[in-house]
Amino acid sequence: MDPTHDPRLLDRPQSASDQFTRDELDSASRNHAFYLELLALETTPIGAHYVVLHFDIPLVDASTWRLEIGGLVARPLTLTLEDVRQRPRVEAPVTLECAGNGRALMTPRPVTMPWFVEGVSTARWTGVSLRDLLIEAGVDTVGGRQVVFGARDRGITKGIDHHYQRALPLDQALLPDVVLAYEMEHRPLPPQHGFPLRLVVPGWYGMASVKWLDRVTVIDREFEGYQQKYVYRDTQCAEDLGRPVTRMNVRSLFRPPGLPDGDSRKRYAPPGRYEIVGKAWSGVAPVTGVEFSADGGRTWRETQLFPPAAPHAWQTWTATWEATPGTHVLCSRATDAGGNTQPLTAVWNLQGMGNNSVYRLEVTVADRLSR
Amino acid sequence: MDPTHDPRLLDRPQSASDQFTRDELDSASRNHAFYLELLALETTPIGAHYVVLHFDIPLVDASTWRLEIGGLVARPLTLTLEDVRQRPRVEAPVTLECAGNGRALMTPRPVTMPWFVEGVSTARWTGVSLRDLLIEAGVDTVGGRQVVFGARDRGITKGIDHHYQRALPLDQALLPDVVLAYEMEHRPLPPQHGFPLRLVVPGWYGMASVKWLDRVTVIDREFEGYQQKYVYRDTQCAEDLGRPVTRMNVRSLFRPPGLPDGDSRKRYAPPGRYEIVGKAWSGVAPVTGVEFSADGGRTWRETQLFPPAAPHAWQTWTATWEATPGTHVLCSRATDAGGNTQPLTAVWNLQGMGNNSVYRLEVTVADRLSR
């Protein structure tokens, strides 16, 4: 065990209760969920994109804000927002997912932001290539090992007063598709999505895509900030740091058919034929297939999988469901080119990270409903 | 008692637990909260505006969508979105608040969407005057009594399969500031805010501002739809329909000073002088004053109150707080020209409507924190 490792900083309380604490509810009210009925859309409208906020949203004055690029670089840069915007524009739709998405489906449940499955979205991001800026600054690719991204948001966790900071390995930071984005869906970033500038790291869980970015620092060692060393870890116990969470596991979701009950969100549908529309993604390798089940996973059949709109955007899939009276459990299961398939049940870990278990939706089909 | 009144449709279960049910959490994850730290802004960015969804978000095809204006009118209208947009534009910032905002602060707590205080926002809405359209259609102002607004969203509540529908008294619908809005913050409405057209009724709680509007019908009686007759009622028991909720009660909130704890959202601040910035509003009469207390409401002092940007937008107020080490409870209390003042504690009712009790925020001031 690392002698400088403090297990208290890694730990998360666990709950077996089917009720949720005030802190969990507060987290859910700030960390806006995506709406599954919008899975029919290729990209997610602003305001429907999921949000994760560790602390308060900083309101940044763009006229005084600067981006500092320093550390192991030959020519440190200090850029205004206009400087950033004048560089060549890159744009791409990117699927982002919170590493904790699916946490509340674990048993016991790690007590922090209680995501079920709605912590995923796809937006078009516009900005500049991080790689180009690092090369312009003369990054030391021999001595440099990691790139640290510092942000404006600040708060206290486990007694530690800190700004949010995360690092990427230098080779990952130099991949050509990593973007410093100043627009989301062709508008300046809204405050809650990181105005004026944020990182977007395609393929990785969302914690890597640092918002309210103001400092990029190349260092010659592993970054040991709190959010890197103690949070976003896949571990079985607080004594073991486990593995850092990095790329998104393969996953699929679908638009719930039928009508909701306004109180319970239970689903009801008239009998008939439904086209089930879903999305699938993986940060590890391209998605190669999605299976659909209308009997709770006893039998599966292949769905029609469409190519993605861009390399890091989710892919649409469709299946036909012949709905007959009764209660049915619909499920989908995606597989990627790395041979990874969604597990049928959640695999527990201490912080509730990376749960990509099969999405299950119960629908009651009733004759009395009209279409 | 009305012989056609069914108390089961009006009832809401109550909870004295400090834990929340899965249904409450699901509601909170869909009904996005406003962020109090954005109270410094005059208007709320898209995506930070609170959202209430009774059912799924309908995805409306604007090319086939039509607005039907009918009932007691001489010249029924069927309008395309382009027809609506070609009429004279009106625009105004309007503060909207959910009638259930503050519900979770009641004891016992009505079990439905568990708002604390974040169900309020202010956006600039652009559209056409409802009054002008009703006059164009030749509204029967003698025989007409109410105007029913029908929407595309559909679901099941208490076993009733229905589209969301609400009515306004005809004289209220003919007030010149009621808008049929197709833009929010100068962009087409996002799906979750009612694309392609919604009602905005200034001064009223949000349930009146029907989203995904497609039908306006003038009727000669009181509308008895489920969302009108049984929901949004201020009542003490399910046997009595009580009063319908209409205009927003006087209320004030402020931006929490200092830093949050990332898990508990408790506030911490270094000692020193703070400018507290807040907003105040009332749907009943203009706000005439806001008081601030730094000792939990034992002593109050007047704050500086600024004029609103528009008649139906919240007003900024500011106060100075000299923060000394220790734990303090900050509060604000607004009064309107109707002589209404925020109560110190919540006034319970069965459905948890219209709670405008004083906002209380505990802040721990600690020397060890830097500014």
Word description of this protein:
- Two copies of one chain form a homodimer.
- In chain A, a hairpin with a 5-residue loop joins strand 2 and strand 3.
- The longest helix of chain A has 9 residues.
- Chain A is mainly beta and 371 residues long.
- Chain A has six helices and 24 strands.
- The radius of gyration of chain A is 21 Å and the shape is globular.
- Chain A has a six-stranded mixed beta sheet, with no helix packed on it.
- Helices cover 9% and strands 35% of the residues of chain A.
- The mean pLDDT of chain A is 97.
- The first copy, chain A, folds into two domains: 238 residues, Sulfite Oxidase, Chain A, domain 2 (Alpha-Beta Complex); 115 residues, Immunoglobulin-like (Sandwich), CATH 2.60.40.
Secondary-structure blueprint of this entry?
2 copies of one chain form a homodimer.
Chain A: H1 7-10, E1 14-15, H2 22-30, E2 67-71, E3 77-79, H3 81-85, E4 90-97, E5 109-110, E6 120-129, H4 130-136, E7 146-157, E8 160-169, H5 170-173, E9 179-184, E10 187-188, E11 198-200, E12 213-219, H6 226-229, E13 233-234, E14 243-244, E15 251-254, E16 259-260, E17 267-269, E18 272-281, E19 287-293, E20 301-302, E21 304-305, E22 315-323, E23 326-336, E24 359-365
Parallel strand pairs in A: 2-12, 17-24
Antiparallel strand pairs in A: 1-5, 2-3, 4-6, 6-9, 7-8, 7-12, 9-10, 9-11, 13-14, 15-18, 16-17, 18-22, 19-20, 19-23, 21-22, 23-24
